[in-house]
Structures are given as C-alpha cells and as structure tokens.
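Thread: S-adenosylmethionine complex, take 2
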Amino acid sequence: MKYTGLIDRLIKDRDLTDKEFTGVLLCDDLQFNEYLFEQARTVREGIYGRDVFIRGLIEFTDHCRNNCYYCGIRRDNTNAQRYRLSEEEIVACSDMGYDLGFRTFVLQGGEDPYFTDERIVSIVKKIKEHHPDTAVTLSIGERERESFQRFFDAGADRYLLRHETADKSHYEMLHPSDMSYEHRMKCLRDLHEIGFQTGCGMMVGSPGQTIDNLICDLRFIQTFKPEMVGIGPFIPHHDTRYADHEPGSVGMTLRLLSVIRLMLPEVLLPATTALGTLDPDGREKGLMAGANVVMPNLSPVSVRKKYQLYDNKICTGDEAAECIRCMSGRIERTGYRIKTDRGDHVRYREGCENDRK
Ligand code: SAM
Ligand code: FES
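Output below.
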C-alpha cells in the first residue's frame, strides 16, 4: 500500500517533508485512507480515550464590520437578516446548556462593535458566576491585546481565531485590503502569550487554495502549536462572489484532520458543522478520522437560520435538547461517548500549570 510507511514515520517524527505531506493529502486510495484514519484514532484514543467533548455553540450576533469575501454574514451582504442576542438571552442559553450537560460554551459572532469589551467581560463573568465549573470559549474575531487580556482576566478560557490561510497572498485574495494578515497572526500570538487555550484553523478548499497553501497551513500549525484546530470544508454562500465556487472536499478535510492529529497528538479537534453540512455523516467521519470535539448549537431556534455563513447549514430547526439527543446517538454509533466535562487540552488540566510550553 503506497504511503503507509509515511504515516508510520509521521507518527514517530510528527513531521514529513513538504513533498511527503503533499503525497499523503492528495492520496484518495481507500485502503490508505482507512489506514491513516485508524492510526489517527489510535493516537487520539491514547490521549483522550473514547471520550468526545461537547461544546455548546451560542451564535450571539451576525452583525459584522468585516467583509470577508467568502462569508455570508459579511458587512456588505444587505440580504443578511441581522440579529443580536441580549446579555440575558446569551446567559439563558448557557443555563439551558448547563442543564443539558454542557460544560463549555462557545460564544461566536461576527465582529460586532455593539459588543464592546465591557459587554463581553460582563457576559463572561455572568456565565462563570452561574456555572463556575464551565469553560468559556470566545470566537469573536480580532481585537487588540488589551481587550484579549480583559477577557482572560474576566475568566474566558479559550479563544478560537482561525488564521484562515497561512499564505499572505492567499489571505489577501480572500479578504479586502482593510483586513490584515499580520494583524490576524499577531492576535493569535497575543492570545497564546496571554494564556488562552488558543485555536487556529482554515477552510479546506477555499477559493484559490492550492495544495502548497495547505502545506503552508500545516507548517504554521506545527510551529504555532495551538491547543485547538478548527478546520472544515469551504461551502459557498449564494450572496457572495464565490456563490458558484465548488465546495471543499470531504476526503481532503478528513485526511487533514488525521494528519493534524498525528502532528499534534494532544490537540482538541472538532468535527465541524460544515463537515456535517457537506456529508450527512460528516461529523461521524470526522470523529473516525481523529477529531474529538463536537459543537452542537445552543442558539435560540429563531436566529439559527440567520447565522448563515454558507448555504444549507444543518441543525437550524431543532431545539437544543433535540440536537444533543441526535448528536449523542450519532456519537454512540461510532463507538465513542459524550464526556460531561470542560474538556480542556491535556496541558491545561488542573495541576498541569507547569507543563505549558
Ligand atoms: N468573526 C469571528 C472570526 O472572524 O473569527 C468568528 C466568526 S467566523 C464566521 C467563523 C469562521 O467561519 C471563520 O473563521 C471561517 O473560517 C468560517 N467560514 C466563514 N465563511 C465560510 C464558508 N463560506 N464556508 C465555510 N466556513 C466559513
Ligand atoms: Fe465577519 Fe464573516 S465576515 S463573521
């Protein structure tokens, strides 16, 4: 079987040459893929066992000052139906999520100037007051270091900020000139230095992406050493310039999940909603390829469809309780099980303060 030797070496060295990574990522041979996924699962199970961590996703605003060309809620999309949840509504989502067994809440939104540092701090503190045994993840885009520090001091534990692409010219193709590759990268460094469990990541198959761009992403991930990596396929949105662009490949996304698991064995790796949107069994396949996190939606059903980054997003109709029931069934069918726990990265578990970096 071509390339299986490379996988064994990737497990041992956590590294391959660019040419070798390219060979692995482009190989869609069934037997080879099964071998790759199996090895990724073995490594994942060695660290996190058969547990899957669940994160309650609260999409609290779709207002955004940015204009990322691929994104359905970008500023210039006048067809987007804008909404923002109040602090009370956001905290109520976390209360409901807590009762359903969630111990991590992910607050995600566009870059909405209404949510000043003070408002974010107040929301984080409220959730932590109500539920001291939970973790709060923020995914609210770029801010300055002082703001990140304030969020951390208020009790936020993790921050997701996908780098989107580690290649500067590709970044500049996907974003308007008022957005800066350097600033996004600086944000990621600041978040890590402050002490957040930090997540980067990219879309797979984004417009203009080459295999060399993906290798560049892997090299960035390897040096940055994030605690989390969020990757999912690009999916077109009808109101963007990429409406007719083909979506990213499920197979490539799965191979990348496995490769990232083998490069960074301890990483927290979600099987994303985008993967489940392109393939009805996408999230299960993600778990079988080395992912160990899923993020069911806790947002009120009335706003779910409005937070539309791409077309045909799944899970927009079901109440949270139904979502978690459906997700539990899906997870159990893979042989894994939901863990009711904050689900920290192993280096950030209590008593591991000295092991960081
Ligand atoms: N505003 C925050 C930020 O910029 O990090 C968080 C929200 S943003 C919508 C979350 C992620 O959605 C982005 O990092 C991007 O990778 C992903 N996304 C946006 N448009 C997408 C599309 N058309 N297909 C797949 N993923 C998309
Ligand atoms: Fe801001 Fe997509 S452009 S969230």
